[in-house]
Write a structure and sequence with these properties.
Helices cover 26% and strands 9% of the residues. It contains two helices and three strands, in the order αβαββ. Bound molecules: iron/sulfur cluster. Iron/sulfur cluster binds next to loops.
C-alpha cells in the first residue's frame, strides 16, 4: 500500500471540510410555518402574525429572541431551537411553547 501524497491528503481534508459545511447548512435549514411540527405548535415567523383567537395568552412582546429555548445570540436574526431539531427559527418568531428567558 502506498502512502498518500501530501496533495492527496490536502484534497481529502478540503473535501471533508466542504462536506461537513454542507451538512451543517442542511442541518440548519429555516423552519417553515408549513412544517407539521410548526403547525402543531402554532409557530409563526413573525410574532405579530400569531392568531390571537387561537392563542389568547400570546402577547407581541413574546418572540423567539426572548424565549428560554432560543439558542441564537441576542442580535442573531435566527437561531436553533431544540423543539425543531436541525432547523432555525426566526428571532422575531413565536410558538406556543414560548417560555420567558431567565438570566
Ligand atoms: Fe421560538 Fe421558543 Fe417556540 Fe423555540 S420554543 S420556536 S425559541 S418560541
Amino acid at each position: 500500500m502506498t502512502q498518500p501524497s501530501r496533495r492527496t491528503f490536502m484534497f481529502q481534508v478540503v473535501a471533508t471540510s466542504v462536506a461537513l459545511g454542507a451538512s451543517r447548512a442542511q442541518a440548519q435549514s429555516k423552519l417553515e410555518e408549513s412544517d407539521p411540527q410548526a403547525i402543531a405548535l402554532g409557530y409563526r415567523q413573525d410574532t405579530t402574525k400569531v392568531d390571537a383567537k387561537k392563542y389568547p395568552a400570546h402577547v407581541v412582546a413574546q418572540d423567539c429572541a426572548t424565549c428560554q429555548l432560543f439558542q441564537g445570540k441576542p442580535k442573531d436574526p435566527s437561531g436553533a431551537c431544540p423543539l425543531f431539531a436541525g432547523k432555525t427559527v426566526a428571532a422575531a418568531g413565536w410558538c406556543s411553547a414560548w417560555t420567558k428567558k431567565t438570566g
